[in-house]
Amino acid sequence: MDFDLLTAIGLIKEDEGKAALVTVINTKGSTPRKAGSKMLVYPNGQVVGTIGGGCAEAEVKIKALQAIDDGRSFTYEISMLNDAAAEEGMVCGGIMEVFIQIV
């Protein structure tokens, strides 16, 4: 795990704050990042780390903010396979499954 990410998680715990840690847990096909990639999403939308950028990351960021609001962790799958994904600029052609964990 990236040092900046570890530091950011430590500071959240120290301040008794909330955030969502997003971890890529599975990939199929061509994806921007592979399993183990992480990003931390703060309630204000600020991000530390990356799971690949672009539309897929933006979609996951929205889900992470929902997780923070709901106070629950869950898995989420992003498909970059169909025509709609291509129209949105997702050109990788794969599927990423992420775990969104409240920290």
Structure description:
- The chain is an alpha+beta fold.
- It is 33% helix and 29% strand.
- It contains three helices and five strands, in the order H-E-E-E-H-E-H-E.
- Strand 2 (38-41) and strand 3 (47-49) form a beta hairpin.
- The two termini are 15 Å apart.
Based on CA atoms alone, the radius of gyration comes out at 13 Å
Helical amount: 25-40%
Largest sheet, in brief, is: 5 strands, antiparallel
β-strand percent reads 25-35%
> How far do the termini sit from each other?
15 Å
Instruction: Give the neighbour order of strands across the main sheet.
Output: 3-2-1-5-4
Query: Could you state the order of secondary-structure elements as H and E?
Result: HEEEHEHE
Using DSSP, what is the number of strands? 5
Short description:
The protein has 103 residues and is an alpha+beta fold.
Topology (elements, then pairings):
Blueprint: H1 3-14, E1 20-28, E2 38-41, E3 47-49, H2 54-70, E4 74-79, H3 83-87, E5 95-102
Antiparallel strand pairs: 1-2, 1-5, 2-3, 4-5
